[in-house]
Amino acid sequence: MAGSALVHAAVFAAGALVGGGVAAAVASRKREFPHAAQNSQVSAIKSPIIEVGPGGNAQISTVASSGGVIAPPLRYGNPGPIADPLVRKAYVAAYDRRLRHPAWTAEHLTLASLGKSAVSPPPEGGELVDRQKSTFTEDASLPAAFRSKLSDYFRSGYDRGHMVPAADAKFSQEAMNETFLLSNIAPQVGDGFNRHYWAYLEDWCRRLTSSFADVYVFTVPLYLPQLHPDGKWRVTHEVIGSPPNVSVPTHFAKVVLTSRPASPSTPDILELSSGAFVLPNAVIPDGAPLESFIMDIGQVEKAAGLTFLSDELKAASKHICKTTKCEVIVRRFDDARKRPEMRRAISSPK
Amino acid sequence: MAGSALVHAAVFAAGALVGGGVAAAVASRKREFPHAAQNSQVSAIKSPIIEVGPGGNAQISTVASSGGVIAPPLRYGNPGPIADPLVRKAYVAAYDRRLRHPAWTAEHLTLASLGKSAVSPPPEGGELVDRQKSTFTEDASLPAAFRSKLSDYFRSGYDRGHMVPAADAKFSQEAMNETFLLSNIAPQVGDGFNRHYWAYLEDWCRRLTSSFADVYVFTVPLYLPQLHPDGKWRVTHEVIGSPPNVSVPTHFAKVVLTSRPASPSTPDILELSSGAFVLPNAVIPDGAPLESFIMDIGQVEKAAGLTFLSDELKAASKHICKTTKCEVIVRRFDDARKRPEMRRAISSPK
After folding, report:
1. pLDDT digits (tens, 9 = 90+) for A274-307
2. Which residues are CB-neighbours of A118 under 8 A, at least 6 positions away?
3. Where is each ENPP1-3/EXOG-like endonuclease/phosphodiesterase domain found (chains A, B) (predicted)?
């Protein structure tokens, strides 16, 4: 039947622009679009997707639509979401289907979430949460065609870099395991970046919880243009995998917002701090000052096409480097690894 | 007040992941996220956005949330949608906020929509629809920070290339005007591409309506990697504007699906055809065969991170070049322009 390309009409199911859910909706055959469609943004475009029956036949239903905006240009197919929203135990994120890494991740860190609070609960089941129990895993919640795969990273020369660090999800093994889903991973330079300066920055973000009650962290892969001698700006980035699948960001940003009571007597009056750091996906010397990577949050937002904080919130917050010390602690994990007796004491970020 | 960075708590409003709408929702202060959040995709993540009051103060409300998923990591801000869905008279589209051009556009072409049917209505108001009455316009429905601007294209060396062609929206001046919104525009090489081979392809798509009852066209900017001598695949693309804002796609694709009754006696039994053409954003000789740009639809989907047609539909359709002639008609509009008496007779695509 498929070979004859004769399709007996079609039963349609609607796929919303966002998410993988399929809602029931059926298209009518009316060609009213050009004059009936709305000249405005809609929150979601529903559209029919053809369904071929068991015999290979499909029927165009004449039953009227049962809700949702059916845009006639999408009657046979809908390009679908650009990004998949992901809600995990330790983070929320959006996965970019084209670049095959997160568009952004967001976390809320506290002493309690890091298991450092006196009143924090012990890890689930009382067992020690251990990154050695976690393994990098392809994210089956994404369509196979758009998933990043273990084979894409294999022998790519890049580390599987966590956007949400495993160490931020120590409150349960399951939460930590979720940070090893490839939908939370982007290709990072290993030596001198993922295993060093980037890890120092992640550690600095965690240490903010000792100074601030609440720490919010956005992690954002970026593609920044460079000025060339001909006066033109160009973005150049590698794509790894065979066939090439996963894009390698030129930079990574951390955008942080912290809050704490302005004084112990007024716990509902908050002091807010914020800041953004943009690091090249490249070897960074241990001695580089963290402050040298400061970037205006609005500039990061423009580069990413995202909005992290409202203008009011940006204006209402001090720069994080004014309310705490912006200084990383250098930890040469790999040097420790070379000494066998240290291997279990300090595990390297991967 | 802003300077002191003391924020008196906060009244939150929720912004959905998709669309610009602000729904009423208020966050509680509970820090229950790590254990309460769902380990799954959600169709939309709602989050609070801080609202600073008239006096510059903001209050953290203790009123419980009134609906919607509030993800605690997004309590102070939400990165927002990656793409804006757009519904216009002649097309639907998604605008990419980072690249600042459409991620895709979709159209439904018929003899009637092109004003070529005997039974088609005359243009609205009876006046002639004329592209000279349309002007390129920044799309005010997009946030200012993510809009592509007229100044980005000015002296960029690139044409403002229509994704949905103006000539596909001749049924009303308003529909045509909408094709001139910069949210429907991407930077294209002018001579030899936008004004020539790409215009021939657009014309070929329109001419499909004389052979097929329904013609569906997706237009898709692409960023394709090239193999370098070092064995690595890299994407390199320009970014125009000052500061650099609008990315210049390396390629553009048209994905078409057509349907027509298999025979006049069985109007509900359809013959489907489909195909994809991928053209480099570069000078293409007039003599290049259209068939030399054929690409597998699934490959275009993988490169774009989008789904145009279900696997069943791909399997159920013949290749378009088997059901009609894949051959463009060469029209040297610019040669005509050089002769003043022809200027009004033939207007060049821009």
Report:
1. 999 999 999 999 999 999 999 999 999 999 999 9
2. none
3. 88-315
